[in-house]
């Protein structure tokens, strides 16, 4: 169908969580336990020097390929740069979507992410990110639900 | 191949190098003040466009030459472009050249002042001074870059 990018600052926590909810790796109806976050592929794994590299998370039930992308605080530059390249290469952007996963993010997630990814203290940072994400989990579920509804509408429009 | 000259802003060092690459500016001779004024005008108009590929032309090896303003995100954009190329199976090779360290801090200051409409006359003078100081240096760097691109891989 198309390609959907969940993007955030480091591509290690919130966007990974959103993509995991989207692909049903994480539940919609309850807040997951700590071990469930640790079991997600790529959770708290993105290195700083690899920021900008999209990570493939899987294909959803409508056939969209779901990727995760960390772009620091440069979404207003990086997204136009990607779209510009697609445009210059003659590729339609109709089925390329970018969704910011930085919605109502708990400050603890940001501090934990910095501690884990920037300072390399993942034994302190990772539990903090999980604690923060569990706090804002309902917002992330809400975001993904809205994204999936929009994709379903898009899909229906193509079929009719 | 797409050769993308990436500066902090697109219209200063990145455009200057791209223009030298395609031959809009002849490296051996310093351009007339009319040319430099036109370049400054493009900085006033498009200096704040970040992330847009600005097509400058084709070089003698038929490489497409672009200029782009990457702000502080050169490495992120370089990786994003390379990997997006793989995802979408864009077969054309990409070559990103980071100009932001070569152009110095003056374009940032000029861009900052222009974005806030502060003393355009002063900005123009600073731009002319920067241009005259950097022109020959950039011409040499572009010549070296062209030789690198021609080397078989």
Notes on the protein architecture:
The complex is a heterodimer of chains A (160) and B (153). Chain A is an alpha/beta fold. In chain A, 49% of the residues lie in helices and 14% in strands. Chain A has a 4-stranded mixed beta sheet, with helices on one face. Chain A starts with a strand and ends with a helix. Chain B has one domain. Chain B is 56% helix and 14% strand. Chain B contains 6 helices and 4 strands. Chain B has a 4-stranded mixed beta sheet with strand order 2-3-1-4, with helices on both faces. In chain B, a hairpin with a 5-residue loop joins β2 and β3. The mean pLDDT of chain B is 91. The chains are: A alpha/beta (160), B alpha/beta (153). Chains A and B meet through β3 and α3 of A and β3 and α3 of B.
Helix content of chain B: 55-70%
Which term fits the overall shape of chain B? Answer: globular
Q: Using the CA coordinates, give the radius of gyration of chain A.
A: 16 Å
Spatial separation of the terminal alpha carbons of chain B: 13 Å
Q: Which consecutive residue ranges of chain B, at least 5 long each, have pLDDT under 50?
A: none
Total of helices of chain B: 6
The total beta strand count of chain B reads 4
Q: Tell me the strand percentage band of chain A.
A: 5-15%
What sequence of helices (H) and strands (E) makes up the elements of chain B? EHHEEHEHHH
Largest sheet of chain B: 4 strands, mixed
Strand content of chain B: 5-15%
Output the strand order for the largest sheet of chain A: 2-3-1-4
Categorize the overall geometry of chain A. Answer: globular
Mean pLDDT reading of chain A: 88
Span of the ends, CA to CA of chain A = 15 Å
Order of helices and strands of chain A: EHHEEHEHH
SSE-based structural type of chain B = alpha/beta
């Amino acid at each position: 169908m198309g390609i959907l990018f969940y993007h955030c600052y480091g591509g290690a926590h919130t966007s990974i969580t959103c993509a995991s909810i989207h692909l049903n790796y994480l539940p919609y109806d309850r807040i997951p336990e700590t071990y469930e976050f640790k079991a997600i592929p790529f959770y708290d794994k993105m290195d700083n020097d690899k920021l900008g590299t999209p990570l493939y998370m899987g294909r959803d039930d409508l056939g969209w390929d779901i990727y995760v992308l960390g772009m620091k605080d440069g979404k207003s530059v990086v997204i136009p740069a990607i779209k510009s390249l697609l445009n210059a290469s003659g590729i339609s952007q109709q089925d390329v979507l970018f969704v910011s996963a930085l919605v109502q993010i708990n400050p603890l997630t940001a501090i934990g992410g910095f501690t884990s990814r920037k300072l390399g203290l993942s034994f302190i940072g990772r539990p903090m990110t999980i604690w923060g994400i569990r706090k804002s989990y309902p917002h992330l579920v809400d975001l993904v639900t809205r994204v999936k509804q929009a994709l379903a509408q898009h899909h229906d429009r193509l079929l009719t | 191949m797409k050769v993308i000259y990436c500066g902090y802003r697109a219209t200063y060092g990145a455009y200057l190098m791209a223009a030298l690459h395609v031959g809009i500016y002849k490296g051996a001779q310093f351009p007339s003040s009319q040319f430099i004024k036109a370049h400054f005008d493009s900085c006033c108009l498009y200096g704040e466009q970040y992330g847009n590929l600005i097509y400058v032309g084709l070089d003698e090896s038929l490489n497409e030459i672009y200029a782009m303003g990457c702000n502080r995100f050169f490495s992120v954009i370089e990786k994003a472009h390379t990997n997006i190329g793989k995802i979408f199976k864009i077969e054309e090779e990409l070559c990103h050249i980071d100009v932001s360290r070569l152009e110095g801090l003056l374009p940032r200051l000029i861009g900052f002042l222009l974005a806030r409409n502060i003393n355009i006359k002063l900005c123009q003078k600073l731009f002319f001074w920067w241009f005259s100081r950097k022109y020959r240096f950039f011409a040499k760097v572009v010549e070296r870059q062209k030789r690198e691109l021609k080397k078989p891989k």
